[in-house]
């Protein structure tokens, strides 16, 4: 049985673990010094304000203590991380045929061009530290929607807009890895949706890290004006190496009055990845942010998307599923800050751990004095497949007004032997019975995922359950 188990887990990762010879044409030295940051800034042709911003962020990084609330990241040594790798590709191709063959083949295997042709309004593809492809449908662009790489926007007509929004929601002083991001960020997407425009089909960005011992630090900035609508999908993966890789991206979302943004993320990093990502949304009056999050990969994750409900009647919904297997310690959750009257938030999560995996859910709900009439409900459920995995729930609530309706529910358990026996009595093999129970446990979350990712998640569960009896 153990041989079958190892075999299946290898199959499970093979979809993502393929890799090509590293053919980058330029990379900085490993480590983190002012000289390296200035080298990245020159390579990016930064305006002076951005160069100064990077150097100030670097100073903050060195002055800020390592995070102490989550799992150990002692295996991450910044002196060994390469913070910028430019692949062998011209920046920002708008024709898929112009992308180099090995990079193109990577994204073909991951299904990105097919998804673009079938169901997406636009696609961006980042390889290591650079966006190598970006395109948006003509009919979407004709509505005034801007979807491009953030560096083109910075150097073009949207430079002032970038400057007025860049790392204002997530300042470099927020924590050590926000400061790191401010110093060495590279690549990422910029989206602007004008007032009243509803983008009926999703946009998607996909981030692929191919280089061993490297970091990826993309920045995503999305601005929705009043009454706009957008669904943005973000996917991430990397092949497995025997050295640490780092992902410390940043996502800033500005949701205007009565606008709605649905932000779906599927993270399937390899199990040598430290995923220390920061995501934050600011929601104005009557606006809504919908987070849909699937965390299936990485060795260690710190991931807590945050919603700041800044206008009256603003709303936030967070739906998440986490699957922690062998050698994984996934510390995930979310934070909501109610800063205005009659705001509302709802959190619904499922976490699964097996083979000694550790899954921790952290939530923080803050209701300030002026957020009278606000409501928040948090529901988190955890399922452990075996006796040596671990699952924890760490909720925090800071309520500063009596005129609020706040609820929290948490449940942790194991697969019911009675349920397994019942399914087996109906002729279903034990492995399949357990996989069905796990899929059913995650179903009300997975149904919120984009279709292709929901299918992928259920396949992952079935494969991971093989050989997991007992």
Write out key terms for the chains shown:
2 domains; 470 residues; 35% strand; disordered N terminus; 25 strands; alpha/beta; single chain
Q: What do these coordinates show?
A:
With 470 residues, the protein is an alpha/beta fold. The chain has helices at residues 2-17, 34-44, 48-63, 101-109, 112-119, 138-141, 150-155, 159-165, 176-184, 417-425, 430-446, 451-465, and strands at residues 26-27, 85-86, 122-127, 130-136, 146-149, 189-193, 203-208, 215-216, 219-224, 229-237, 245-247, 250-255, 260-268, 273-276, 278-283, 288-295, 300-303, 306-309, 315-324, 329-338, 344-353, 358-367, 374-384, 390-399, 404-414. Strands 5, 6, 8, 9, 11, 12, 14, 15, 17, 18, 20, 22 and 24 form a 13-stranded mixed beta sheet that branches. A 10-stranded mixed beta sheet has the order 4-3-7-10-13-16-19-21-23-25. β3 (122-127) and β4 form a beta hairpin. It is globular. Mean pLDDT is 80; it is low at 1-24.
Précis, in short:
The chain is of the alpha/beta class and 470 residues long.
- How many DSSP H or I helices? 12
Characterize the overall form: globular
The total number of structural domains is 2
Low-confidence stretches: 1-24
SS content category: alpha/beta
Output the radius of gyration: 22 Å
């Amino acid at each position: 049985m153990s041989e079958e188990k190892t075999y299946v887990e290898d199959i499970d990762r093979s979809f993502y673990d393929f890799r090509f010879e590293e053919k980058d044409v330029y990379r900085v030295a490993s480590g983190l010094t002012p000289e390296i940051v200035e080298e990245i800034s020159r390579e990016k042709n930064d305006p002076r304000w951005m160069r100064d911003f990077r150097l100030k962020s670097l100073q903050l990084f060195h002055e800020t203590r390592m995070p102490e609330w989550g799992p150990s990241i002692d295996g991450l040594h910044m002196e060994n991380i390469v913070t910028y790798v430019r692949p062998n590709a011209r920046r920002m191709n708008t024709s898929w045929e112009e992308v180099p063959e090995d990079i193109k083949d990577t994204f073909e295997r991951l299904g990105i061009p097919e998804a673009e042709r079938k169901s997406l309004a636009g696609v961006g593809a980042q390889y290591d530290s650079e966006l190598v492809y970006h395109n948006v449908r003509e009919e979407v662009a004709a509505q005034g929607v801007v979807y491009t790489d953030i560096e083109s926007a910075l150097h073009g007509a949207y430079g002032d807009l970038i400057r007025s929004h860049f790392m204002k929601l997530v300042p470099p002083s927020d924590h050590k890895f926000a400061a790191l991001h401010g110093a060495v960020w590279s690549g990422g997407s910029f989206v602007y949706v004008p007032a009243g425009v509803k983008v009926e089909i999703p946009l998607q960005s996909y981030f692929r890290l191919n280089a061993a011992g490297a970091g990826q630090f993309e920045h995503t900035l999305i601005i929705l004006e009043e009454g706009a609508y957008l669904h943005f999908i973000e996917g991430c993966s990397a092949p497995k190496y025997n050295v640490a890789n780092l992902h410390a991206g940043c996502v800033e979302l500005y949701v205007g009055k009565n606008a709605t943004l649905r932000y779906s993320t599927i993270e399937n990093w390899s199990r040598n990845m430290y995923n220390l990502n920061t995501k934050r949304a600011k929601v104005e009056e009557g606006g809504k942010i919908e987070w849909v999050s699937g965390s299936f990969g990485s060795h260690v994750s710190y991931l807590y998307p945050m919603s700041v409900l800044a206008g009256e009647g603003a709303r936030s919904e967070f739906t998440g599923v986490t699957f922690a297997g062998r050698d994984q310690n996934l510390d995930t959750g979310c934070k909501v800050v109610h800063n205005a009257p009659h705001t509302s938030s709802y959190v619904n999560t499922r976490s699964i751990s097996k083979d000694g995996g550790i899954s921790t859910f952290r939530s923080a709900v803050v209701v300030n004095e002026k957020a009278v009439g606000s409501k928040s409900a948090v529901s988190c459920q955890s399922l452990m497949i075996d006796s040596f995995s671990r699952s924890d729930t760490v909720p925090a609530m800071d309520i500063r007004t009596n005129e609020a309706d706040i609820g929290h529910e948490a449940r942790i358990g194991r697969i019911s032997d009675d349920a397994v026996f019942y399914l087996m009595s109906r002729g279903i093999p034990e492995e399949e019975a357990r996989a069905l129970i796990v899929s059913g446990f995650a179903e009300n979350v997975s149904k919120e995922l984009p279709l292709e990712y929901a299918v992928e998640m259920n396949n992952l569960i079935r494969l991971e359950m093989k050989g997991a009896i007992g």
